[in-house]
Amino acid sequence: MSAQVINGKEIVSDYRAQIKDQVASLQSKGVQPGLAVVIVGDDPASHVYVRNKAKACEEAGMYSEVHKLTESTPEQELIELIEKLNGSDKIHGILVQSPLPKHISEERVVEAIEPSKDVDCFHPVNVGNLMIGKEGPLPCTPAGVIEILKKIGADIAGKHAVVIGRSNIVGKPMAMLLLREHATVTVCHSRTKNMEEITRQADILVAAVGKAKMIKSRHVKPGAIVIDVGINRLEDTGKLAGDVDFDDVLDTASYITPVPGCVGPMTITMLLRNTLEAAERAAG
Ligand code: GUN
C-alpha cells in the first residue's frame, strides 16, 4: 500500500494562522515580536532562505530587519552589530545565517547572541537547557519534525525512533527532542556499521544526512513513518531532492514527508514560534 504523503502546506498554514493570532494578541498589549536576520556574503541560496524567513515574519504580523553584510566584513564588525541588536527593544530574535565566511568564527558569533534572543537555539546555554529539559527556544528543524509527528497523530512514546545524522543543528537535537517525547532513540551516522539493520527497526525514521536519495525502501520497516530533513540540489537536473528516495520508499512507509514543502517551511514556522515566545517572555 502506498504511504500517505504528509500535507506540509496544510500543517504549515494552520500553524502560521495560529501564530498570527497570537502575534495580534501580543500586539494589542503593545508588543510586536521582532526578528533580525543577519547575512554575510553573497551565497545565493542563503539569500533565498533569508528572504523567505523575513517574508514569513511579515506575513505573521511581526517586525523584521535584514542586515546584509559584505563577504569581507571583519568578525568584530559583525559582533558589534549583534551587540547592538542584543540591546534593541524592537528585536526579540536574532538569527545569523550560516554558513559564514571562513575568516569569521561561527562559535564566537553564536556566543555573542544574547541567549534569550537566540531563536536558532545554537547558543551553548540554550543547547544545555535543551539537554536538561529547561524552558527556552527549541531548535527549529527538530521542533518542526516533532510538530509534524504530532499533527499526523503519531504516538511517539515508546516507539523506536532512528535518526540518521549527528549534526549539531539537526541530528543531535532531534535525538534529544524525540527522547523528550519518550521515544527510544538510536542515532546512526557515517561510521555506523550495518546501518540498514538498524534503520529497519525504526517505527519513526528521520533522515538528516545531506545525501540525495540515500534512503531506499530496504532501509525502511514496512509501515514506518519517514521524515525527510534533507534538501539537496541534484547536479543533473538542478531539482531539489531529499535524503530519502521518495519513489522507492513510497510503498513501504505508512507516512512520508515530501521534499520540498514540508520540513523546510515547518522549520521557518518554528523560527516564528521561537520569536513570538521570546517576545512573550520579554513582555513578561
Ligand atoms: N543555514 C541553514 N540552516 C540554517 C538555520 O536553521 N539557521 C541559521 N542561522 N542558518 C542556517
Automatic annotation (TrEMBL):
It catalyses: (6R)-5,10-methenyltetrahydrofolate + H2O = (6R)-10-formyltetrahydrofolate + H(+); (6R)-5,10-methylene-5,6,7,8-tetrahydrofolate + NADP(+) = (6R)-5,10-methenyltetrahydrofolate + NADPH. It holds the Pfam family THF_DHG_CYH_C. The lineage of its organism: Bacteria, Bacillati, Bacillota, Bacilli, Bacillales. This is Bifunctional protein FolD. Pathway: One-carbon metabolism; tetrahydrofolate interconversion. Residues 6-120 form the Tetrahydrofolate dehydrogenase/cyclohydrolase catalytic domain. GO terms for cellular component: cytosol. It comes from Paenibacillus solanacearum. The gene is folD_1. One of its GO terms (molecular function) is methylenetetrahydrofolate dehydrogenase (NADP+) activity. GO terms for biological process: L-histidine biosynthetic process; methionine biosynthetic process; purine nucleotide biosynthetic process; tetrahydrofolate interconversion. It comes from the Bacteria. Residues 139-282 form the Tetrahydrofolate dehydrogenase/cyclohydrolase NAD(P)-binding domain. The keyword Signal does not apply.
